[in-house]
């Protein structure tokens, strides 16, 4: 491999790092992928509530990474929850930047039991709530709430991977995304 790409992920969570490494390896198969996770502050609560707070958390992490590190791409994933008109759900926002351009994506919703969502409103983090409900340990660095609630047919990593895959579209077709209407 003659080319390499350096990717900085705004988290040291191995689930997030592995999701980022997977999508960059998929889109750049002839490149060596150097994917590193760093502690990047979200500047939102540890458990974001609402789409706006969740998106801003991911954007803040990418901004921090761009200001502190040199890389080809920067990305961050932020999990949040919200009470929608049809019920509570958890989801994630993803942000990818190449330093000059930025793309924002969002995962699908996972319906969340109301009792678990209510615990989030009291200040608990979803990973901790899930560990208590399912008698697990540190599930947020494994399959996450998604894995537990889908009997591992989907995982936290698979959900991040899908959202990151979709968020790459503007980098793959920049001329279309920059056309004037």
Kindly estimate the percentage of residues that lie in beta strands according to DSSP: 15-25%
The succession of helices and strands, N to C, reads EHEHEEEEHHHHHH
Could you tell me the number of beta strands? 6
- Could you say which structural class the secondary elements and strand pairing correspond to? alpha/beta
| Count of DSSP-assigned helices | 8
The gross shape turns out to be: globular
CATH secondary-structure class: Alpha Beta
Percent helix, as a range, is: 40-55%
Q: Tell me the number of structural domains.
A: 1
- Could you tell me the mean pLDDT? 94
Which architecture would the CATH scheme give at its second level?
A: Alpha-Beta Complex
In the CATH hierarchy, the third-tier topology is known as Maf protein
Separation of the first and last Cα atoms: 40 Å
Radius of gyration using CA atoms only = 16 Å
List unreliable stretches of 5+ residues: none
Give the biggest beta sheet.
Answer: 6 strands, mixed
EC number: 3.6.1.-
Keywords: Hydrolase
Protein name: Inosine/xanthosine triphosphatase
Organism: Pseudoalteromonas undina
């Amino acid at each position: 491999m003659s080319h390499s790409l350096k990717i900085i992920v705004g988290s040291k969570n191995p689930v997030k790092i592995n999701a980022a490494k997977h999508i960059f390896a998929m889109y750049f198969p002839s490149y060596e992928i150097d994917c590193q996770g760093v502690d990047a502050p979200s500047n939102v609560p540890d458990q974001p509530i609402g789409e706006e707070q969740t998106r801003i958390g991911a954007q803040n992490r990418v901004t921090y990474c761009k200001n502190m590190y040199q890389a080809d791409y920067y990305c961050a994933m932020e999990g949040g929850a919200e009470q929608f008109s049809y019920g509570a759900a958890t989801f994630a926002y993803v942000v990818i930047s190449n330093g000059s351009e930025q793309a924002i994506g969002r995962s699908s919703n996972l319906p969340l039991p109301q009792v678990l969502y209510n615990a989030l409103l009291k200040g608990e983090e979803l990973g901790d709530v899930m560990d208590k409900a399912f008698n697990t340990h540190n599930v947020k660095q494994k399959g996450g709430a998604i894995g537990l609630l889908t009997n591992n047919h989907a995982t936290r990593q698979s959900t991040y991977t899908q959202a990151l895959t979709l968020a790459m579209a503007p980098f793959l077709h920049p001329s279309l995304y920059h056309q004037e209407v």
